[in-house]
């Protein structure tokens, strides 16, 4: 009875892990595509009446400007220049990382689920050969 329970648990983890993981990875791909294109730029950090902001030249020669959030301001610190990423076609949109942290989190969740599924499948194969 215990052997059948172990087989069932491993099979459930394998199917659910791989199936759910692939679904979550597909969702991460959709999120990545919806995130759009972001270009790297070197920005100047300036003080303004409403707080600190960054200004940069975009790839078409225009000037972009965005106010820094509290977290971004803390990450930049006292530097007067910062490496940023700005959104193509959306003025005033920038961030400090190339890829979205949300997309990265969803992708890592999907990879973790697929990993659990693969490990459960490998364990079921090992159990099968141990009994054989």
How would you describe this structure to a colleague?
The chain crosses the membrane at residues 12-34, 102-130. Keywords: Membrane, Transmembrane, Transmembrane helix. The chain is α+β, with helices and mostly antiparallel strands and 132 residues long. The chain has 2 domains: 2-35 and 101-131; 38-95, OB fold (Dihydrolipoamide Acetyltransferase, E2P). Helices cover 55% and strands 24% of the residues. The protein contains 3 helices and 5 strands. It has a 5-stranded antiparallel beta sheet, with helices on one face. A hairpin with a 2-residue loop joins β1 and β2 (51-57). The two termini are 17 Å apart. The mean pLDDT is 92.
Return the average pLDDT rounded to an integer: 92
Q: Which overall shape is indicated by the principal axes computed on the Cα atoms?
A: elongated
Q: What gyration radius follows from the Cα positions, in whole Å?
A: 23 Å
Strand content is: 15-25%
Order of helices and strands: HEEEHEEH
What is the helix tally? 3
Q: Roughly what percent helix? A: 40-55%
Q: Ranges with pLDDT <50 over ≥5 residues?
A: none
Secondary-structure content class: alpha+beta
Give the total of beta strands.
5
Number of domains: 2
* Lateral strand order in the biggest sheet: 3-2-1-4-5
The major beta sheet can be summarized as: 5 strands, antiparallel
Taking the alpha carbons of the first and last residues, their distance comes to 17 Å
Transmembrane segments: 12-34, 102-130
Keywords: Membrane, Transmembrane, Transmembrane helix
């Amino acid at each position: 009875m215990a052997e059948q329970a172990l087989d069932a648990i491993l099979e459930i983890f394998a199917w659910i892990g791989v199936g759910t993981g692939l679904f979550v990875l597909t969702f991460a791909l959709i999120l990545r595509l919806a995130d759009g294109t972001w270009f790297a730029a070197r920005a100047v950090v300036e003080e303004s009446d409403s707080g600190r902001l960054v200004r940069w030249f975009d790839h078409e020669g225009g000037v972009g400007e965005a106010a820094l959030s509290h977290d971004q301001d803390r990450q930049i610190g006292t530097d007067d220049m910062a490496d940023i990423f700005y959104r193509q076609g959306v003025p005033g949109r920038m961030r400090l990382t190339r890829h979205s942290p949300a997309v990265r989190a969803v992708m890592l969740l999907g990879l973790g689920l697929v990993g659990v599924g693969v490990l459960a499948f490998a364990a079921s194969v090992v159990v099968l050969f141990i009994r054989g």
